[in-house]
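Session log. Operator J.P. requested a structure for one protein chain; no other inputs attached. Running the standard single-chain path with token output.
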Amino acid sequence: MLLTLALLACQTPQGTSTDTPPPPPRDTAETTTSFTLPPADLVAGAPLVAAAEGDLILPIGTPLGGYTARCLCMAGISSQDSRDSHYANGFAVSTGVQTYPTIKVMWIANGDDHLVITKTDSIYSFDGLVAAITDRLERSSGVPLTGRVIHTANHSHSSFGTFSDQPTFYLGSDTLVRENFDRMADQIAAVAMEAYDELAPGRIGVGWGVDWDPADEVYSDRRGENNDLAVWPDAEPGMGKDPHLGILRLDDAAGEPIGVVVNFGMHGIIGSEQSPMVSGDSGAHLETYLEESFDRDVVVMFAQGSGGDASPRGRGDDDYARMESIGALAVDKIRPIIDSTPTAADPITLETVSRHIPIVHDEIAVTRNGTVDWRYAPYDPDATPDDVVYESNGDLITPLDEFNVPYGALFCGSDAGLGGLLGGEVFSEADEYVNCIDVEALIPLVEYTFGLEEDSVPLPLPESLKAGTTVTRLGPVPTLLPGGTMVTDDLLLGFFPGEATAMYGEQWRRRVRDELGDAQAMMISYSQDHEGYLLIPEDWLLGGYEPDITLWGPLAAEHTMEGVLQAASEVLSTPVREDPDPEGLYTPTTYPDRPLEVHTPDSTPRAGTRITEALTDPERLWSHFHRNGDVPTEELIIPSEVPRVQGVVQLAWEGGDPAVDSPRITVERMEGGSWVPLTSRTGRRITEADHDILLGHTPYPLTPATDEQEHRYWAAWQAVGHVHGKRDLPLGTYRLKVEGQRYTGTETTWPFTTEPYELTTESFEVVEAELGLVVDKGGLTVSLPGPELGWRLIDVDGEALGDNPVHEPVEVTVELGDGSTETTTVTPVPEGGLSRLEVDLTDVVRVEVVDAYGNAGALDLP
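Structure written below.
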């Protein structure tokens, strides 16, 4: 994140056991959720598996989480105009969608227990959301799932905020909007129930890769402060990015993949703080390209590993094309590991324990299995720290008396000197702590920024006193080791509440191996709750950006890890299922029951009416290409011909209030006299939820949202193949279809009564693209140019808005001065964004080039 207070798997198929009972029938009636499991021996059973996916759709106008620079208190840098929204309190209003965030679910059972892993493209997780999803699933399924439901996030900095009721993070994603929280919980639970309804006997396997991206094409280390840090005697100083790639593969009974969890660390920060468009960012595009690498419907879930200090790389001059390039570059690296990962239907045991680990200043400790005893000196408001952090031999001095705060502190690694700027007390002169600000000094700013009543935010912050965690052991399952060896082993899955850094992930693997005896340990971070960045103490004390966004100083993250290790030792290391919390020490945080917000959507009687002329100020229309709202009329006219790659179709219309209208835009193609949806290779329909179509919204008048407004929408489709066939989109007749909703009820709280509207554009012909030809001193070059108003990835070696190389052999026809012609087949030689053709141009007056897909270009020579 930017400056933020909230901080901010294949064996030969084996027979499937018939001993595992099917899941109980789905019960949609409301039932009690106070399930308990009686003490019993763990029972191994053949695995039941399912995977499902959907889109997370919240109203446009909902602020985006991840960058405090979007807060109006920090200039609201992504603000496009003066609009406001019922869904924003202190953050800039979002204006459109590049990709809707995805919801992914993996459901595993064995007839004895269940594990439900849910993931959204969001900035972080929230334990209150986990509880809400769990409650909905228990009511719908009738299955006891408390402590067995995971919610994890891909850490997109361009996804919806407003779903967390943790004041610590209000300055990272705006305040809670109860309506959006409920919408989100409902949608996640609905996708999870789709998985539950599909639970069937299947196969499970694990795969590992190490150093799978050696050239940093997909992701890279971003934390230089620890390059010389020596932590483990058997390892060289420093670490760089976490090189581990983990695969959890779920197959059907025949051994065909149905779901794959891909686990490594990579931030979701390609979409900058200036972007007002919703996006799943790097992780979502990785999923898309991996899913489309299969020839059938497979759900891929990107589950963050040590992403806290790992940045996305990719290529391209456009942010959205660069997001796509992450997936394009990763497929050839990750698919071989997925394909080699073995799976089996042999019985497994499955057990999970969830605990909220207490984090209280005077009780925070790191012992490393008895090898150290690091603690904070008891809090004393009158104490003066000695400001000495290390012994002469470099060991950490304990107790640590510098972190002398009752409620935690922020900005400890910052170089910005924010203590003075914000009026906070700097409580230590040691370099490692000099920029810390007591959280108590920040509460008035939070209250003022979001219009909260004075003293309405309690101290200590309730969410700061416990860290929600989960740990699961499942197996034994067949496992592919990095060197290619196949073993059968258990998998220990740790779900951690924050931004785990590379050394933190390495410490987890080492401590699990040494203290629990599990050789296969996977960490999925950004899960269950959020505590900011997770660093081991030695790394935290080196400063830099990441310690800024930690609340309880250098010891808290590894203290939390030790709580997870203890839970695994106490509960998962016995053959008996035990009460995971017999003394009530690890209960979840309790949050207030917030009421639904009161507002009435606008009636919008003209919803479904096309806008075909440019609107002048103040009747404006915002678009991704014209952010001042001044869209030229000619761009709203549907062209009769749209060339592949270079053609962009724009559409505008009046629609419903975003509280009820999230328009679905579908690309349709005429086939056999009927309009059919355009689909990807795996059969997924191309809509505005994908990177193929951009969507924008403009209210009129812009403000206030409390008055009656018109709602204008804009969409654009670039004629590029979804993932495959980018240059050879099928020729033919196309159109765009819009399906939306308008408000027709009397409700003043969500959900609202609606009726549908629909419209379609005029048809247009998709035709061949025009190749670019240039003669220079080196001879003839050919390229496939991108359009001026483009955003799609065309080639990882090219540019969305510039030249792209041609790879396949082309047909070259030259006309000589005497009028004769010659045609040859030439294999291009890529040179950056261009491709060079070995063609003799002596006496040539005209040259024509046609690529393998019929795209053509011609050039007259002097």
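Operator note: Residues 40-354+465-577 form one domain.
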